[in-house]
Task: structure prediction
Amino acid sequence: MIEKNLPRDNLLYRSDRFHTKLLAANVDQVFVVTAAVPTPDPGLLDRCLIACEAAGIPALIVVNKTDLPETAAWLDKLQAYAAMGYPLLALAAKQDIAPLAERLANRTSILVGASGVGKSTLINALVPEAEIATQEVSEALDTGKHTTTHTRLYRLPGGGALIDSPGMQEFALGHLDQADLQAAFPEFRPLIGQCRFYNCRHLKEPNCAILAAVADGRIQRHRWRAYETLCRELDSAANHY
Result:
């Protein structure tokens, strides 16, 4: 139901050469929901965070299923993201959602993440009347099963709104260019402009401030690898036109 037509302040979306998938507009914050089971994909997490940075929307990382023994190791890996400034919210959707609930009041928020991480379970705990169907993770495939097929907004009892989005296995960022990518890595920003070449791509150029920071550990190597992969995808897409 269309209630009102508002000016668009921001837009979270994903795109490749063929399709564009709009997720939500005018959101105050994005919760990237993760879990240790099924096996998490750090690359998907990076892409979600990059999309949020590019859209100018604050992002928080939710670590669901803290009742599972595998969660401790996943939380340990995520400390690198906390050091970059991304808040971590650890919880178990079936036990206590207080860490998430207290951040939702009077704000418009969206949940994004892979299938099987518990987004629908979180919605059911926050909005019991939603009664969203949930399914167990497939142990054979180590993946979640899709239960949400479209994006939907729920009004929260305490004020605000929460948007549930379908689980995803990838997050294409075809709408970003080289400058967008560099700006979407918060750990890169203090070093932009300090390279030998003004148009440095931070891939293999000599006297690159970003590569130097990767070498001495100031920037996580896996994050630079994510950046490198996205640059290669940009080059590949450009060669198809």
